[in-house]
Design goal:
Length: 116
């Protein structure tokens, strides 16, 4: 009987050899990152985060929103009511009045600056 590992197959490796493990490409994003990026790009659909049980997911979404400069009063209230104590406490210390839309002179007079 002939040595089967020495005879290559016409379409691949010699018989009896094992393919090396493929390394996962680090450039392929994780599914959770894709979902969080999509949520951060469609903020009008973020209305209730209480069903999200993992605090790390809420934190990651909040980080994306703040990094993009999109945290407004409504979103801050959604995160305050998300059910995760650390996030609620952090946002309770935030000045949400600065996130309210309004004339610049109202916000400027509140901070002691004269309107232009």
């Amino acid at each position: 009987m002939a040595d089967r590992t020495a005879l290559p197959l016409p379409w691949g490796r010699p018989v009896g050899t094992v393919a090396p493990l493929q390394r996962r490409d680090s450039r392929v994003p994780k599914l959770v990152d894709l979902c969080l990026d999509r949520m951060a790009s469609r903020l009008e659909s973020v209305v209730d985060l209480r069903p999200v049980k993992e605090q790390s997911l809420c934190m990651a979404l909040l980080h994306r929103i703040i990094s993009n400069g999109k945290l407004d009063f409504r979103l801050a209230r959604v995160f305050q009511q998300c059910g995760h104590e650390e996030i609620e406490q952090a946002l309770m210390t935030a000045d949400l009045l600065d996130a309210l839309p309004g004339p610049m002179d109202v916000r400027a007079s509140r901070h002691g600056c004269a309107p232009r």
